[in-house]
Amino acid sequence: MSRPAYMIVAIDVHDSAAFGRYAVQVTPLIQEFGGKVLAATQNFCVEHGNWPRQRLALIRFPSLAQAEGFYGSPAYQPMKALRESASEADLILVESPQGQSVEVSDDAAMPHYLLGATTVTDPSWIEAYMQKVPPISARFGVQGLAMGNEFSVLEGAWPRDGLVLLRFPSEAVFQAFWYGEEYRAMKALREANTIADHISFAGLVD
Q1: Residue 87 is part of which domain span?
Q2: Does residue 104 belong to any structural domain of this protein?
Q3: What's the pTM?
């Protein structure tokens, strides 16, 4: 069974009109390859560290092959040239973990995402973290969409060795998890042993 793949696009736009034309043109092509835009926003919150770009788009494809097919397709090349004329971007492609199904949707709420770029400075904490955090995450309905250091940089750069992409049922749930008592000790443990940049942002309602 194919695993979903996520295209992460961090963008600085310097020609809004041209970029707007690109956005209109590219959406049907994304859909043709089975893709879905999960988020496209300038309104993200830097939760920790720094973030180098002004905008972010998150696109899910049913498989890595379909994501690569979209990016390399002849139809996309003139659209890509238009985007590059209007912006600068860092574009990352990552496959979801083995056994991860497509994220569960709740039509009554707007999903919220956390994206992190991480370099581990001391790995000794990871075992304890991975024992304690999954049960906490499960209680909050958190889904780990992508994580680790196996990803492709298609354009630009990625600031750290690894990444994590989490989906929360809503912003309220994200706030309760990220700043709540249950996760606090594990969050402090992680931050003490990594160099990381984290942002949170709202997704689009299904």
Answers
A1: 5-99+110-202
A2: no
A3: 0.93
